[in-house]
């Protein structure tokens, strides 16, 4: 499929979605949001793809929701707009998604990165929730996901001041898994996605789903879900293959079944 606002590419088992609204620093207008979700869904539906990478440009992963598009909304328009729930399409993707962040990830851009399963950053990346400086608050999960990533005090500091943090601080605080030189970032993200993509796909989906349960529910519910999913791994050919390969000291050959 062809999209106006993103570039899509597949490298072996990795689907790459590159945001492509450079003049607006990838500000997330309706068209870009739709294209990100549709491109991710296309990779979700492609059995040859095991993991997805979302990335932007050197200057910006995404500088936030499109302020110009939002500026004149009334309450009833904001409340009624589908745009604000569009990202539910992205958060229901079951394949692992890596955000590779160079440059700005601000407001909705930071929230979009946090919707992904792993955030990797280039050295010059900047993260922030500047909504308060515009007279609004985060609306795509920023107040919820940031606190889970960095804890209350640091999340509050970012949400209440709008101050940005750089890539190294974001890594120290646990928002970002790893920092790379900017020019290596996308290749490193693709390498990690390729490693994930080389695993049994149904097992990777279960690993993501079970890990997300920790994020979304209670410890007891999460452990119960994890245990049930662990049990159900034994219904897969790939579990038999994985454990046989270990015993035979060879690499497993997954059939993704
Ligand atoms: C619309 C944007 C934009 C945005 C940048 N641009 N961010 N347009 N929405 N969020 C546009 C600029 O207007 C400008 O267009 C062009 O991109 C280049 O930006 P500059 O400001 O000239 O670049 P620079 O001086 O390098 O500053 C970069 C920046 C700054 C620090 C990232 O652009 C900035 O502060 N942007 C806004 C960041 C922000 O507040 N994001 C949160 C949005 S609210 P022209 O036409 O002038 O060249 C949000 C809510 C999410 O995300 C929740 C929704 C439900």
Beta percentage is 15-25%
Fraction of residues in helices? 40-55%
Please give the count of helices: 12
Count of DSSP strands: 10
Ligand catalogue: hexanoyl-coenzyme A
Describe the protein in words.
The chain has 257 residues and is α/β, with parallel strands linked by helices. 46% of the residues lie in helices and 16% in strands. It has twelve helices and ten strands. Strands 1-2-3-5-7-10 form a six-stranded mixed β-sheet, sandwiched between helices. Strand 2, helix 1 and strand 3 form a beta-alpha-beta unit. The longest helix is centred in the last third of the chain and has 16 residues. The chain starts with 5 loop residues before the first strand and ends in a 10-residue tail after the last helix. The mean pLDDT is 96. The structure holds hexanoyl-coenzyme A. Hexanoyl-coenzyme A (HXC) binds next to helix 2 and strand 6.
């Amino acid at each position: 499929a062809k999209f106006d606002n993103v570039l899509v590419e597949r490298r072996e088992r990795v689907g790459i979605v590159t945001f492509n609204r450079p003049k607006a620093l990838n500000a997330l207008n309706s068209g870009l949001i739709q294209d990100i979700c549709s491109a991710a869904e296309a990779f979700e539906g492609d059995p040859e793809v095991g993991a997805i990478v979302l990335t932007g440009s050197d200057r910006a992963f995404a500088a936030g929701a499109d302020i110009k598009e939002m500026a004149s909304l009334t309450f009833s328009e904001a409340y009624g707009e589908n745009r604000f729930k569009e990202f539910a399409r992205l958060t229901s993707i079951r394949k692992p998604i890596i955000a590779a962040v160079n440059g700005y990830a601000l407001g909705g851009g930071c929230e979009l990165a946090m919707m992904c399963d792993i955030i990797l950053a280039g050295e010059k990346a900047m993260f922030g929730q500047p909504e308060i400086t515009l007279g609004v608050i985060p609306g795509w999960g920023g107040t919820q996901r940031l606190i889970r990533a960095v804890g209350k005090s640091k999340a509050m500091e970012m949400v209440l001041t709008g101050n940005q943090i750089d890539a190294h601080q974001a890594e120290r605080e646990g928002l970002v898994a790893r920092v790379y030189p900017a020019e290596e970032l996308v290749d490193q993200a693709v390498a990690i996605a390729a490693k994930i993509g080389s695993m049994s796909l149904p097992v990777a989906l279960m690993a993501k789903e079970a890990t997300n349960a920790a994020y979304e529910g209670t410890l007891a519910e999460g452990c119960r879900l994890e245990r049930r999913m662990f049990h159900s791994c034994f219904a897969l050919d790939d579990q038999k293959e994985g454990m046989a390969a270990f015993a035979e000291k060879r690499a497993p050959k997954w059939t993704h079944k």
